[in-house]
Amino acid sequence: MADVRAAPYSRFNPQFKRDALAAALGALGLEYVFLGREMGGRSAEQRAVTVERLLLGAHVAPALEARGIAVTHILADGGVEPHGATMDRLLDSLKLREDLFRTRAQLIAEAVVRQAGRIGHVYEAPAVAGRDA
């Protein structure tokens, strides 16, 4: 399981703390990998939500599911939901519905782009003295 949380702990659900989660998954024969630094929503330096996580999740999850690997999202309240339910919530929040002209996959792609525009920003690295801009 890849943990992409920027902060791998939970005040209210101790079973989702990094060490506890790794131990529980290990007991089930599953490997735990922390990718929060690489994919987490907020880095210590930026403290801002990045678009990359949303876009990566939208592209990686369907590829994993196509290979028979279930994708589950850990929610802010400690609950979990399947990837499809997460995408349903995104579509509902943007009031996108299937019609005769667009498939579910097309709607999800549109929703991801819209959501990325709502939460995204352009992160510019700070200037370093002595380097050309």
Number of strands: 4
CA(first)-CA(last) distance: 40 Å
Mean pLDDT: 75
Largest sheet composition: 2 strands, parallel
Residues in helices, as a percent range: 40-55%
Structural class: mainly alpha
Taken together, the total number of domains comes to: 2
What low-confidence regions span 5 or more consecutive residues with pLDDT below 50? 44-50
Describe the structure.
This protein is mainly alpha-helical. It folds into two domains: 1-40, no CATH class; 47-123, no CATH class. The chain contains five helices and four strands; from the N terminus they run E-H-E-H-H-E-E-H-H. A two-stranded parallel ribbon has the order 1-2. Strands 3-4 form a two-stranded antiparallel sheet. It is elongated, with a radius of gyration of 17 Å. The termini are far apart. Residues 44-50 have low confidence and may be disordered.
Annotate the secondary structure layout.
Blueprint lengths: L1 E2 L14 H10 L5 E2 L1 H4 L11 H16 L5 E3 L5 E3 H11 L10 H16 L14
Parallel strand pairs: 1-2
Antiparallel strand pairs: 3-4
Helix pairs in contact: 3-5
